[in-house]
Amino acid sequence: MKRKPRVARPRTLRRADERAALSLADDRERLFQLEPGGTPERPIEVGSASVVETHALSMPCPRCAGVHDLVEHLAITKASVRLREVRVACRQCGSRRSLFFRLREEKPN
Question: Is 88 domain-assigned?
């Protein structure tokens, strides 16, 4: 006689959903690292330092699509290239990340 298939318990289903959600959030974070601004090697080009913070705060969190809070705005130099690093933290999930910007040098007319 064949046994009936075992019915999954609600806790088992909930834990499987949580693992899938964490895996998806990790994948989104890795994709964010590949986009412009995710690493110092691929900075976002901006015309002025005054737009760096507003641009960084307008980007949604890749994990939960939440709003970022500004933690720190730094001027750094990597391989003789001057960059701006903006450290942000998500209000919803609390994840922290850095965004990188390069100031476009405006030449006189």
Answer: yes
